[in-house]
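Predict the 3D structure for this chain.
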Amino acid sequence: MSSAIDGSAIDKVLQEAVDSGAVPHVAAIAADADGIIYQGAAGPRAVGESAPLTVDTHFRIMSMTKMVATAAALQQVEKGTLDLDAPVEQYCPDFAGVKVLDGFDGDTPKLRDPASKATVRHLVTHTSGLGYWFWSDELVRWEAATGVPNVVAGSNASFGAPMIDDPGKRFVYGINTDWLGKVVEAASGVGLDVAMKEGIFGPLGMDRTTFVMNDDQRANSTPVHVPDGSGGWTSAGEILNQAPEYYAGGHGLYAPPTDYIRFERALLRGGELDGERVLAQSTVDAAFTNQIGDLDFPPEIPTADPNSSGPFNPGPGYKWGYGLLLNTADVPGMRRAGSGAWAGLCNTHFWVDRATGICASIYSNFLPFITDGGLALYADYERALYASL
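Done. Predicted structure below.
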């Protein structure tokens, strides 16, 4: 186990964010290759209740699920059962029916065939053209016109959503990894829950990470919080389907920070933890390498559903690897160039900085995603962590 850092400055950052009302609660954890170097939390597990939030609380990690599903797919690539450059429909015949949304005739969506077949690699790199409603006015309008639910509903009907551009044309963040989960199931011959448990959670000792919580885990979980209209927070309860029709590779996992940090450490260590190898070093290196070529991660993404997410404006200089957002330049006082990161819709974030040799994550559960107070907290946490090293 690594020596713990002096976390007093980080503790203060977390507590002040809760005291100010920027977030309803927060937990944070950081590690190096040898073990945990910081863990802390502030605020209640649920607003209005006395039980404290801890690093062992179960959170909806939402799109932090994506890197786990990506790792499961890369395991199949290593086994030779999955070809990243094969058409998606080779593994999921239903994908052949996915069209491109090409405007509207009044309120009627106009659909056309894609200019080329989307590959599994397009899914992994979010270049298939598939989007998410909260960052696409077109998909908000399409859902309203068709009545088809978004993926949070846990219904297979959501796979009827169209692309909003042709495969390979641009980075569009969307339901790619939900489709990738189905590809993993086809390639492995088992459910995504089993593939992840046998290939990742079991070997890494992530015994509490799950798609469906048991009664004890549910009692230890946090609800989703939303603004109460008077500057505070109130519980919105559960937002995910507790009897989903499919296991969502894009957003379905619940996990405590103490579990997910083990996955982060495995990435930091090149695919191995405590003698258990889940990915080859070369595969991990590829995950931290630009995989979208001359395309860029959009420097500005406006919101299409403010209740779900604010606008995301990371600025220029970001690429995408396998399941990871990559910064191409050092962030002064923070992560180094080449770090891999991503986040979850209910405001959980992680990053793995191989140059510095640390990984870290920060957790709350509230909507909307991307608030000024939340973003300030994440940056303050990161700066305080690096200053403590």
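Residues 20 and 373 are 9 Å apart (CA to CA).
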